[in-house]
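stuck on this chain:
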Amino acid sequence: MYKEIIRPVLDRLDSETFHDLARESLHLAELTPLTLKLVELFAAGGRRFTDERLRVNLGGVELENPLIVGAGWDKAGRAALALWQLGFAGVEVGSVLEYRQPGNPKPRQFMVAPGTAINWLGFNSPGMDVVAKNLSRYRNPPFKLGISIGMNKDVPHDDSPRAHAVVAERLYGYADYFAINVSSPNTPGLRKLHEKGRTANIVKAVIDAMEGKGGRKPLFVKVAPELDWKAIDDILEVAIEHGVTGIIATNTADVPEMKAKYGERWRTQPGGLSGDDEDYRRMATEKIAYIYKNAGDKLDIIGVGGVKDAGTALEKIKAGAKALQIVTALRGEGTAVAGKINKGLVEFMEREGARSIEELVGVDAGKGGPVTTRI
């Protein structure tokens, strides 16, 4: 019913306006136990699905299933508990910046096809103090919380380590893990921070900030799907050298040819494509497989990019992802998406005789030597 009736109506609305309404509706539902329980009616089958075989250990973080709401959906930490009620194991809030930043001028988020989006939001954030206030509502939450860290656009690159570290320091008490986001295509010059030395300096600063607050928490670095293999190798070297927990692969894709499939006007428009696009999904999965083959014994991988159902989830898990993030599919597939994926994963495991979802991680990728696929 969602795809046939509800989504066609929503696709006529301004995408960001709808997104804000959906998030705030979930936020309001958290205000009482009764309204929060009602959220569960919008999960698959009208109830929150769980199964012990779905549990994964992500860098020491125990997740009850492999699904996390990815950064960008709840930038300010307003609806994490309600998203858990829909069947996700965790939420990655952010990206969070030191100071408030309005982002790029609107309109800046578009559904270019059912389940496929292009956005150039530009790191809109209320700032770390507002996010801290929002997260303070959650005491002993059932979900796991990741915090994606970014930096304000007017911060000089030489000051980027401090700008990231101060957010980690401010939100340390709320995070189960942190993610460094230097891969958004929507802030001018940000992807220059992918350079090996700059990434290393940011990683070291964030680690120092955590150790100053009480000890390291799991730390991930998020990469862009368009990076060439040499750039990926550089990031893997930095991550391993500094004891980073893992890699989030990948962010949205700023590929002109890919965007132009949805109309020539999009070719030269800024921003990144996400969601149900076959080329984008394959690009992200190839990055996952490469990382797993070359560093899967040292780094955990969170897979992102075109996950919408059990089939696309399995594709990334088999390529090497231990956990998965979903953002655009919440719009494309609806609120039941987490439950449907988790049920589908269990059904697959039952057919294949797998006792745990972790048994499937990387079975299609293998390790050792270069991958044969190239973008």
Notes: Confidence is low (pLDDT under 50) at residues 367-375. The two ends are 37 Å apart (CA to CA). The chain is about 40% helix and 15% strand.
